Amino acid sequence: METVVSGIRSTGNLHLGNYFGALANFIKMQHENNCYFFIADYHSLTTHPTPADLHGNVRQVLSEYLACGIDPEAATIYLQSDVHEVAELYLLLNMIAYVGELERTTTFKEKVRLQPDNVNAGLLTYPVLMAADIIIHKASRVPVGKDQEPHLEMTRKFARRFNNMYSVEYFPEPEAYNFGKELVKIPGLDGSGKMGKSEGNGIYLTDDEKTIRKKVMAAVTDTGPVEKYQELSEPVKNLFTIMKFVSRPDTIEYFMEKYNLCQIRYGDLKKQLAEDLNIFVEPLRKRIMEISADEEYLRKVVKDGADKARESASRTVREVREIIGFRPF
Ligand code: TRP
Asked: % helix / strand / coil in the chain, to the nearest 5?
């Protein structure tokens, strides 16, 4: 039994990258471990500061967590902003994080490129807040997608530095974790890179059949293989990769063989992929709508989750304050 923490930023609906990269792993881990899953609404302010959207986004992601099968009886589900102790630990960790290392973080550099007019200090210290999220429960495992690896690296660094600085063995060094062997990266439909909210290349858990079909039919491919067993181009490989998550193995084999024999019609492949994606997404979409309409249930989940998360978080912060040297008069 290990302590597990993970979260997703509440910056919009969840897509298949969030599902297969992180959520699917949460769900598999929740019954055997001590799990804390939260909605990173403080983090969302680094890129999405609009007050009118904040609550609705949080509620949507919460409904999606629950619809996907995160079980509030098994795991602690909470909103990051309900646990003020996270903000305090973040402040304390900022004192042992160096500006230079934060500036060198790949995700920070990417954000500077994406939003040059809003390079706020929250973006710079994003990994510090993320470290606080994780170590506040003294977690050892963090189910996340591959893109989060640099952040986990920094979390370990801060945990280690804290332990060294105060000569304690207090925080464990948490590992990024995937239930399968490797961290998952779901590609987008635009030919390269990962599926992402900011990239606008994703299939969302709330997409209906028509939307899915339209997106998949518009996915980038190439002009087709000209010799047998030709290597797959990146856009086509990406479609096969997505298929691996939603289609039957014999379906994939069928299209792979067509490809290898230069007989493939990408239109057929896309039609099949759209169908399989819809079979996967449709029940989730319906469940999300049901759950998001159930005010009372959501309120209860959030309240119970906050109580449980604060119990664990306040214990850690109390001990950390002692270690650092804050004493009562
Ligand atoms: N950075 C993560 C993302 O963009 C969200 C996140 C914030 C997180 N704090 C975390 C994930 C702690 C795991 C653990 O998806």
From this structure: 60, 10, 35
Separation CA 92–CA 89 (nearest Å): 5
End-to-end CA distance of the chain: 39
How confident is the chain (329 residues) per 10-residue block, as mean pLDDT?
Answer: 94 91 88 96 96 96 96 97 98 98 96 96 98 98 89 97 98 88 85 80 95 96 96 96 96 97 97 97 97 97 98 98 96
Q: How confident is the model at residue 327, as a pLDDT?
A: 93
Q: What angle do CA 250, 254, 260 make, to 5 degrees?
A: 135
- Which residue's alpha carbon is nearest to atom 9 within ligand 1? 130
Residue 133: phi and psi, rounded to 5, are -50, -40
- 194 noted as active-site residue: yes
User: What pTM was computed for the model?
Assistant: 0.91
Does ligand 1 have an atom closer than 6 angstroms to the CB of 130? Answer: yes
For the chain, give every domain's residue range.
3-184+295-324, 209-289
Q: How many whole angstroms from 263 Cα to the centroid of ligand 1? A: 43
- Smallest CA separation from ligand 1 atom 5, residue: 8
- 221 contacts: CB under 8 Å, gap ≥ 6: 233, 235, 236, 239, 266, 270
In whole angstroms, give the CA distance from residue 258 to residue 228: 10
5 lines ligand 1 (CB under 6 A): yes
Kindly report the CATH class assigned to 3-184+295-324: alpha beta
Residue nearest to atom 15 of ligand 1 (CA): 8
Question: CA nearest 138: which of 305, 317, 326, 323?
Answer: 317
Cβ contact 105:12 at 8 Å: no
Dist. CA 145 → ligand 1 center (Å): 10
The predicted structure's pLDDT at residue 191: 86
Q: 209-289 is classed in which CATH architecture?
A: Orthogonal Bundle (1.10)
pLDDT of residue 178: 79
